[in-house]
Structures are given as structure tokens and as C-alpha cells.
Amino acid sequence: MADELLRYRSEFPILDRTTYLISNSLGAMPQGVYEAMKGYADIWATRGVRAWEERWWMLAAQVGDEIGALMNAAPGSVSTHQNVTTCQAVVASCFDFSGKRNKVVYSDMNFPSVMYFWEAQQACGARVHMVKTEDGITVPLERLLDAIDEQTMLVPVSHVLFRSSYIQDAKAIIEKAHKVGAQVVLDTFQSLGTVPVDVQTLNVDFVCGGVLKWLCGGPGVGYLYVRPDLGKTLQPKFTGWFAHQNAFAFEVGPTRYSEPPFRFMNGTSHIPSLEAARPGLKIIAEVGIERIREKSQRQTSRLLAMAEQRGWRINSPRDTKLRGGTVSIDMSEAEQVCRELLERDILVDYRPKAGVRMAPHFYNKDEELDTAIAAVEEILKTLCRRGV
Ligand SMILES: Cc1ncc(COP(=O)(O)O)c(C=O)c1O
Question: CB of 85 closer than 6 A to ligand 1?
Fold first, then answer.
């Protein structure tokens, strides 16, 4: 059957030049970004400071809504920031960790930057409880749920784990957190754009991520969803003039908070990155997450079967329902194999305890997966002959 999503290939210049299997790290750049960047320069050059009023001031909220639409978030509930770490800081600043409820629960399979941030919050009273993986692929759900108790304030966890692509049971985690009065900060960096996310069905408190991977939006745009009822009352201490009800009054004294999404922003927005993010978001919305997920499940299964046939270790779930868009494959000398794949313009990456990560997206051909696996096989044979 013809793969109708392949018609989008012509919108991504790098696909003509490489075997691009690294959308879990950096999605391919849409052709439309050239025009978006030129548009940005033209507006700055011709409209100057008037650009703020005419376009730029509202851009952060507009892009937030475009991201929000992909996760069934109400308009106005998603603010934009530079990255996920900043989003954690905004959320953390809404809470007080000096009381009895000061526990922060997550697993050691979180993205390290998120863990580094929370480790550092111990200086402000946060008490970190880290649940350890047993198999390097999954997080033991029961142990994580048990750790979430009446003293827990926040549960910052990944929806899909960056190392193994395991999909955590976000619903179970959120339900347990709510039962004991805690709140969940779900990192959807590795899910939104390839795995369905519905913030309303999940009834999640906070969602954060970035657009540069599966959303093909480039570096510099992180997003933060805050559940609308929380958004009305929370008061981030990490704040600034963009969050003020009347920013241009330049009032002295404490912030009078505006409504979300600006309530959760702080200083001047990252306009060039916001402009660059839009073409990718538009394409993802047009293709639709359902079609992307369907293809992703088929292609990751194909990769997994080929790797398994060759006896390589699979560091991702075998069950498609539990696996996101990446397959982590470990073999001897995986780091060197990765380097040699890159030399052949087969773009993948290597991560310790994961191996070579291959991440097809809606624009990849099945043949590209076969090419990558055949190349790994050939590289391994050559290394073996060289006695490496
Ligand atoms: C799950 C996850 N969270 C966060 C990040 C990155 O965090 P930040 O946006 O702060 O650089 C990544 C990867 O870059 C990731 O895979």
C-alpha cells in the first residue's frame, strides 16, 4: 500500500541528502522556515519597534495555542519558554517547599536536566525521592505510585522516556497524585508529535516539552501547559513584566498577575525561535498525530524485528502500545558504530545505557530503515575483521 505521508518529504530539504532517523533529537527542518526567518527579518527591518504591537507581543501566546491544539489544551493555557528546564523553574516557583509537604517524586529515567534542576531545589527545602529503574527500560509503576504520598508536592516525570522510549502510565500517576493532593508535571518532549497526548482526558496539572524534536520546530521554544483552574490562582515567583496585568504601566511594587498564558511568562519573548517553530507545527497539525502514531508503530516494529533477527540487544519495549517513536538498539562497539553511521550520512545518535537510537518520523521511507540496519551490519563486520 502506498505511504501517503511520503508526500511531505519534499518539504524537508535534509531528506534528500541524508538518511534522517534522528527526530527524537532534532526534527528535520521544514523548507518553510527559510521564509519564516526572512519574514522575521523583513518585519524587523521595515516595521522596527512597531513589530511588537503589530505581531511580536502576542506571538508567544499564539504559538502556545498552536502547540496546545496538538494536546487538546484550551486556548490560552500554554505559555512558551526557552526550554523544559525553564518550565520546571516556573512551576517550582509557584510552590513553597518549606513545609511538611515538600517531597518531589520522579524516576532516574527522567531527562537529566530535569533531575539536575530538582536536585538543586533541595537547597530550597524540596525533598527528592528518586525511584530507580530495574531493567534500564521501564520505571516500576507500583514503586513510583507508592512513593507518591501525603507529603508529596510535585511529581515531575517524563511521559515517554528519552533513553528507552517506554511510555509511562501517565493516567495512573496523575490519579495517584491527585488522590494524595500532589500535582504532576508531565514532560511530553518525547511524546507530543509522535504519541497522542490529551491533557483534558489525563486531567494533568502541568505539561512541558519543546518543539525541536518530533514537532520539527527548531531550538529555542519550550512550552508549559497549566490546567486552567490552577492557572487562575498560581503565582509564579519566577516572574517578570510579561506576567504583569499592565506591563506598560511600568508600576513599582509587587506584580499584579495577568491571566494565563502571560501569567506564567517572565521577560521578553524569544521571537526568532517562535517564528521558526510555526512551519513545523503547521505540518504536524495537518498530518495529524493519529496518522503519525500509526506509521511510527509500524516502522519502529520493523526496526525492532530487523535488530532482533541479528541478535542485537533491544533497549526499548517490544510491545508497540508501550513504545514511543524511538528504538534503542545496543550492539558491541555501539558508540563507534554510531560514529561510522554518521560518516555515511545516516543520522542517528548514541546514548549510554541505550545504544544507537533510531527514530523514524512520518517522512521516513521503509527503505531508509533497511539501509540503516544493513549499514550497521556491514560496520560490525568490518570492525570484527579489524579485530576491534
Ligand atoms: C524528555 C526530555 N526532556 C527534556 C529534554 C531537554 O530539556 P531542555 O529543554 O531543558 O534542554 C529532552 C531532550 O533534549 C528530553 O528528551
Answer: yes
Query: Could you tell me the mean pLDDT of each successive run of 10 residues in the chain, 388 residues long?
Result: 94 98 98 98 98 97 98 98 98 97 98 98 97 97 98 98 97 98 98 98 98 98 98 97 94 94 97 98 98 98 97 96 97 94 97 94 98 96 85
CA 348 to chain centre: 17
Give how far Cα 49 sits from Cα of 53, 63, 178, 244, 251, Å: 8, 21, 46, 21, 22
Q: What residue owns the CA closest to ligand 1's atom 6?
A: 84
3-state secondary structure of 272: helix
Q: Which residues 6+ apart lie within 8 Å of 334 measured at CB?
A: 350, 355, 356
Distance 110 CA to ligand 1 centre (A): 9
Q: Which residues, 6+ apart, have CB-to-CB distance to 378 below 8 Å?
A: none
Element (H, E) at 355: strand 355-358
Q: What is the pTM of this model?
A: 0.97
DSSP assignment, residue 152?
A: E
